[in-house]
Hints:
Helices cover 59% and strands 5% of the residues. It is built from 25 helices and five strands. Strands 2-3-1-4-5 form a five-stranded parallel β-sheet.
Amino acid sequence: MQILGVVALDGGAFAEARRQLEASNAARPNAVTFNMIGVAAGRMGDASGARAAFSRAGELGLAEGWRNLGISEKGEAQIAAFTRALALSADDAVSHAGLAQAYEGRHDLARAREHGEAALCLDANNGVARLTLARVLMREKDFAGAEAMATLLAQSPRANAELRVQALGLIGDARDRRDDAHGAFEAFTAANQLSLSTHGAWLNATERLYHPESVRKIADAVAGLDVSNWSAPDGVRDPVFLIGFPRSGTTLLDQILSSHSGIVCLEESEHFGDALSDVITERGRALAPGSLSEDDLARVRESYWRRVDAPTGAIVVDKFPLNIVVLPLIKRVFPNAKIIFALRDPRDVVLSCFQQRFTINAAMAQFLELQWAGAYYDQVMGLFELCRARLGLDLHQVRYEDVVADLEGGARGLCAFLGVGFEPAMLDYRSTALKRDIATPSARQVIEPLYKRSVERWRRYEEELRPVLPMLAPWAERYGYAP
């Protein structure tokens, strides 16, 4: 049965592989079989089943079990799993590299360097270790060293495309910090073109909620909506939605709000979109808020709060920037919800989106070409302004530049909007950020003291941005930014 399971696993028949392997283990349990069960479960999307199987393999003495658990975990659980793998196999380069990456994500640069260097001593071609060491050098402000380290990875024939994309992006970051805007833009462009070569199919995923085609259809629906009779039954609990175009400062606001004792900010995820898809399976209805029945709405609310599982009594802030696209649906499901809208100079936003290495989906794929990024900003913000005009939103707008200039003023404004007292701890948001696992491109930036180098950064790239400036200029003027 184990042999049949291995054959099925190699052939991609993961459900059959799992069945055969579990049957084999029932007769004679062993660590290797548990590890393969974990692989099959993971490929099937059963994260908890994979976690349990990998843990059992590790407990039975298989270092690979702990290593695989570390690869699938994050935060302290990831560190614990890789540490246990190394206790069984001290020369495991993959576990050293995994620990390096995990420690860097936890801002422990000394340990990140220690394990990254150990990994490279054992395997000079370990791309994860090399990428992590380049990030450590960036954070230590050795920009030339970071570029050199990342260049070795970007040029490595053994590195996969995703690692090379990350390396090219780091080269761009290092050049940016050395005031080489032209060279930085070249590196960002190369990273995006490589990413596009492997993820281009997302451009055709028109069925996805955040794809430009869906944004257009939602905007068409909003133009004809009458929300005057939209209401919720008494006792409905409303989250606060923190939205904004990506790279507009939502992560900074998240950390400021999370530092308040009465506020809980959710880990960034599609909580609302997933709750909606649990109930509304017909795409046309998901794009037409007016078509949802009271039963639909009750079921979406129930699914949302089941997913969120937030403590009773706290103000729950759901930070997901592109919930800006589903504002009409948020208004339908939670008509009394408060909305915090993060705003930043459109030219800085589009530049930042172009240079970031996001996990690619139907929305993030729009940032792989500069003109697509500009067009997506224009489209999404057009929808937002239509929603602002027609939906009667309870909305508080926060400019990134104002928060950078006056942190306490921005924090007090948020508190007044949410109806809570200001707490001085909100000004020490960096301490909050250091304790959290932040899964956004801003994770390393938000632990730094407030800085102004990102304000009007676009001016250094004015020549490169010239193709999209005419599209963005009206938005900059509308929001009061200098030409």
